[in-house]
Amino acid sequence: MSPEQPPAAPYTALELLVHGVGGTTPQGMLNDPRIVRITGDETAAVYRRVDDADAEARPDDYRGRPVPEAYVWCNLTSGNGARALWLLLLPFMVVNLAHWMRPTVPDSRTRTVRLHGLLVRLVSLTLTVLLVAAACEVALDLVAWQCAGTPECAAENSWLGFLSPTGSDDGWWSQPGRRLALASLAPAALTGLLWYLSHRTWSAYESQRPMSEGGAPRDDSDDNGRPALGRPGFWYGRRLVARLRAAHTAAGLLTVAAGVGVSAARHDREDGGPAALETLGLLLTATLVAGAVVVIWVVCHRGRSERHLDRQLDATLVRWLPLGSLALLALTLLYAGWSRPDWQSGHRLPGGGTFGGIALVQGLLVIALGVVAHLLYRTHPDTRTAMRGLAGPAVAMLACALGGVMSGGVAQRVADWLDGTEKPIDGPPVFLTWQASVIPPLIVVLLALFGWLARRTGQLRRAETDKVGLDYPSEPQDAERTQRIARTRAMAALTDRAPRIIGIISTVTLLLGAVALVGAMTTDEVPGDAAQGTYAFVEGAAETAQALGSWLIGVGFILLVTWGRRAYRDPSARRTIGILWDVGTFWPRAAHPFAPPCYAERAVPDLTWRMATWTGTTGGRLVISGHSQGSVLAAAAVWQLTPSVRKRVALLTYGSPLERLYGRWFPAHFGSAALSSLRREVDCWRNLHRATDPIGGPVRLPGDCGPPVDREALKDPLSYGRTARHPLPEPILGHSGYQADPAFAEERRRLLARLRPDVPGPRPEGGPPESAAPEPVAAPDSDSVAAPDSVAMPDGGVLQPGPGADGEPQGSSGRSSA
């Protein structure tokens, strides 16, 4: 069916439902197995019930109730089993979040804001180099250099036999340079895979152009005072992602070339090789340095462009940078493969200090990022901002730690797998061994934090126990029921402790990383005869920590891979991982091009187009109803509308993390100033929340220009015990089932009444005019469900006709959708 609708009567209303994280089915959202797709494709689409497909042509049939319509976007994130492998890109996703966590600042601090983004992009670049360097460590150093160069190790691993030097029967591949050249194909292929995934998702996500006429701000409108999410180019990052993809791909290929070429050049320079090879090695080394400088310049030169739609791509230099790096890599492989009969591999591959150098650079960049974030926070302090503006540096530090753990885990496991001979290989670089040794202390800190959380939960539970009785004063108390409600509230309140936990973990990680770096730098300087007394005890403790940390880091990586494989096969596990991406990939790829793609760059334009075209062609009223993460998408889409469209649109959010999570962690885009601006612009906005909800919460906006946005916290459960109205025990719904509460239908009715053009008179505080339309009914569901066929009971409850699409009784499901 075409999205263009026939003109409708002024009282026609549409409820556009947007589900939360974890996804759902359109049948479940609309409470009807018979649905029809109105517009969209298999990835994201708008659906209606079959009976409502031509609702605009029958306006009299919909007097007093809205037409339900469902926007389903879950396939943008977790719909494909292969996307479970994105779990391995977790560090890239986390560091991309750090870009968006800067504090709120006035427009006069644009240079400092640009510096903040620049530092995050540099940290992201080091993560790419770290990942490729880890692949080089495994393929080049452990396999091709150490194991293949050791006859005992090569004999133990027969698949390496053709690479091993065996005296008079040496094969063509037995020379170290040729072995390195062959092994370099693995990290080069990894870099190519990352480029391919980024390019494919770039074509599907970043190439979706936002609406620029009729509904959203035009390219060069005067939007200097608008929040960032309302700017025309915010959801169009095509140029920046293409630029960063070229730079990071080139950085990966140059890292592989350096791993092969520097070793060969060092041999030619120190062992008196042919003058021509020595000169060529110097030229290649200089070219690698020049390429690295160009990559850094490309990353630093340009950031995001949000005030207009930037439809152009960068110059030829940027677009051809990966191809030039690939040509340099090919030339380096030919240089390394030149015959050098006297070249023998032994011990570790030269360049083992690379990982320590990367860690040092990352630590300095994170510290500099912390200084910049603190300066930004001082210009506009807000007590609700997480970690006083230092959330970005803390998350960037965690991304670096994740990258280090994954890199070290791969290297340690491969080394243990290869090292099964009487003459063991040297193994990974010293820094990776020291890095493993700090894992046990970090585990101790985590256990202490969990103990503190358990203690804090007990305190909150005891405090909530007294409040439960006050919320249900007319019902007989049951100790077990009271404890269950109080425990749920206490567990939900732990979400607000996340900033303190992240701050402690990131600080400890930074300090332990410094200890590992110092330990790796001083290991070779310890006197050989200092093996008694205190030093012997310290050395033994360090060796024990290194062994335990190596085992833990390897097990952690294996669990990560196993979880990804299970998610590829198991739809339920895939749904769980999909929730992680739903939360982490809302933001555009502004720092790392290899992060999982931003689904909002497709979802927000979809919602904007639908709202603008429907209100423009029908002249009707529209309530966009968002649950959980759907409320964030709904708010972002409303920001993109022009005032002429926005005056026909109302916003209803429930279980919403807009202020509790996004406002605290991303204050520049969802802080109090941005949400207050949205409140003034949209005018009709109501938010529902519960004390038992661990994700959603109030938006904390006063009613200085109309009714307050937040309704008083809803009771959960609706009934404490068995009553005449609720003869069966009511579940504790927490984050789900908001539409089962009669307050949902009441607030929707009030929003539609405020939008009615035929209702004169002032808007009373906290309620609609008396002549408002009759209250429609709602159906409960864990995400977003409308139930036009449900029956309103005289006591305010809702009687459902039958089970939902997933087979669970409607209104009684305690399943959480986030």
TrEMBL record:
Low complexity composition-biased segments: 768-792
UniProt xrefs under SUPFAM superfamilies: alpha/beta-Hydrolases (SSF53474)
Keyword Membrane: yes
Organism expressing this protein natively: Streptomyces sporangiiformans
Transmembrane segments: 84-101, 113-135, 180-197, 246-265, 280-300, 320-338, 358-377, 389-411, 431-453, 501-521, 545-564
UniProt-listed InterPro entries: AB_hydrolase_fold
Keyword Membrane belongs to the record: yes
Domain of life: Bacteria
Protein name, UniProt field: Lipase family protein
Region (Disordered): 756-818
Annotated keywords: Membrane, Transmembrane, Transmembrane helix
